[in-house]
Write a structure and sequence with these properties.
This protein has about 150 residues and is an alpha+beta fold. The model has no long low-confidence stretch (mean pLDDT about 95). It has a five-stranded antiparallel beta sheet, covered by helices on one side. It is elongated and about 60 Å long. Helices cover about 25% and strands about 35% of the residues.
Length: about 150
Amino acid sequence: MVRHWEDFHVGDVIEVGPVTVSEEEIVEFALRFDPQPFHVDAEAGRRSPFGGLIASGWHTTALFMGMFVRAVLLDSASLGSPGVDEIRWTAPVRPGDTLTGRSTVTDVQPSSKDPRRGTVFTTNEVFNQDGVLVLRLRARGFFARRAL
């Protein structure tokens, strides 16, 4: 069943994941997109305030997005997103961490411009295997409405 805007309700909670991140993936992502020393070099990471190699926050965000797409968007009438309202990286993600996410619907609004769509507002949280919150982001997504 394809989820439309009408299928999302305030208070809905959607669990996503898990995904495990390797040292190789952390370095590969960072070399391409965020080559800060503590993301690409284990020794530099040990000398940093983080005490070891850590994933880029953008990598953590991309991992969440992959989990969310597979769990929600591929089976929905998604029309994209106008953006993220807030993003916070609250703890480092390290090699071997297994991440899971939780997406909570905080609001749903019909479009004032296009009666064929609506907006779903979510607060999204990602946790490591120890239950530590590593990412929180507030976002909004456009979804098609069912034909009237």
